[in-house]
């Protein structure tokens, strides 16, 4: 009989690429991860891993086993959801990942509704950049998350995860006067730091308009970005939730772009009472203009 915990480690290795990354994500030592994977190889009787320098790659047998592991873990999520459904009342922690503008605009109303209708349910909110959500969900650090994607930066499918669309919001060019992207090929720009999804979106949008932007400021807070734009420090791309209270001296020009937000959870967890209840509360908390 294959050990589910070892299958989970193999699945994580397939996604993360190194034993060190798996160990860090799941709070194991690298030697413990290696030992458990060696035991899994003994259980299967076939070679699952091949080492190439410091990285570990999966053999074809290992890749096939990961596909089965995804199915097994999804069935376990279904089983846990069914067991939770027969318990009386919702109680205990449920961990919700979110990004800052959604945390400010949507999460408070959802938490208020959950506290009123399910006082024993302990909702916990964690700020997580969308690029880290998949790993946090698979590692069990989150039960549910809000993630966003842009037209110019579509999300890649994530094995073992599923979800549903929540809302779509328009994007704006923030400048001191009404203008278009093409008007700012030589202007200074304000963008998020490298590695953030918002930075990738802004760079691709500018490149699609035919220029590479000059980035003067790197700021990952929309309120601060808008304040800097109003002071003439540059221009920026802002989603609707980040532009709800613009300062004076600012123009927001709507662009033919959008940002989509959806809920994401582990495959098989959609019917878990806590996940379903939180998802419903989040949907009810979406501002009316985005419905």
Automatic annotation (TrEMBL):
Q: Which UniProt keywords apply?
A: DNA-binding, Transcription, Transcription regulation
Specify the LysR substrate-binding domain's residue ranges.
88-283
- Record's keyword annotation contains Nucleus: no
Q: Which residues form the HTH lysR-type domain?
A: 5-63
CDD domains under this entry? PBP2_LTTR_like_6
Write down the superkingdom of origin. Bacteria
List the Pfam families: HTH_1 (PF00126), LysR_substrate (PF03466)
Is Translocase among this UniProt entry's keywords? no
Q: Which family does it belong to?
A: Belongs to the LysR transcriptional regulatory family.
The protein's name: LysR substrate-binding domain-containing protein
Source organism (scientific name)? Streptomyces yunnanensis
């Amino acid at each position: 009989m294959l050990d589910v915990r070892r299958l989970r480690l193999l699945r994580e290795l397939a996604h993360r690429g190194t034993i060190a990354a798996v160990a860090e994500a799941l709070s194991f030592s690298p030697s413990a991860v290696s030992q458990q994977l060696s035991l899994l190889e003994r259980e299967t009787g076939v070679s699952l891993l091949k080492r190439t320098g410091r990285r570990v790659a999966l053999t074809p047998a290992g890749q096939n086993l990961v596909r089965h592991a995804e199915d097994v873990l999804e069935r376990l999520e279904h089983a846990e959801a069914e067991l939770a459904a027969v318990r009386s009342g919702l109680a205990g922690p449920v961990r919700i990942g979110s990004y800052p503008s959604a945390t400010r605009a949507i999460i408070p109303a959802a938490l208020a509704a959950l506290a009123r209708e399910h006082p024993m349910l302990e909702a916990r909110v964690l700020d997580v950049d969308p690029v880290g959500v998949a790993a946090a969900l698979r590692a069990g650090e989150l039960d549910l998350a809000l993630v966003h994607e842009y037209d110019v930066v579509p999300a890649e499918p994530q094995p073992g995860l599923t979800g549903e669309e929540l809302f779509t919001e328009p994007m704006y060019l923030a400048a001191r006067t009404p203008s278009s992207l093409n008007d700012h090929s030589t202007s200074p720009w304000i963008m998020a730091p490298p590695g953030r999804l918002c930075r990738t979106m802004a760079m691709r949008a500018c490149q699609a308009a035919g220029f590479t932007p000059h980035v003067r400021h790197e700021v990952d807070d929309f309120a601060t970005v808008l304040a800097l734009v109003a002071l003439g420090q540059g221009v920026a791309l802002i989603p609707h939730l980040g532009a709800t209270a613009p300062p004076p001296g600012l123009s927001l020009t709507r662009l033919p772009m959008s940002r989509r937000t959806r809920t994401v959870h582990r495959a098989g967890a959609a019917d878990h009472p806590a996940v379903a209840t939180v998802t419903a509360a989040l949907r009810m908390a979406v501002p009316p203009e985005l419905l």
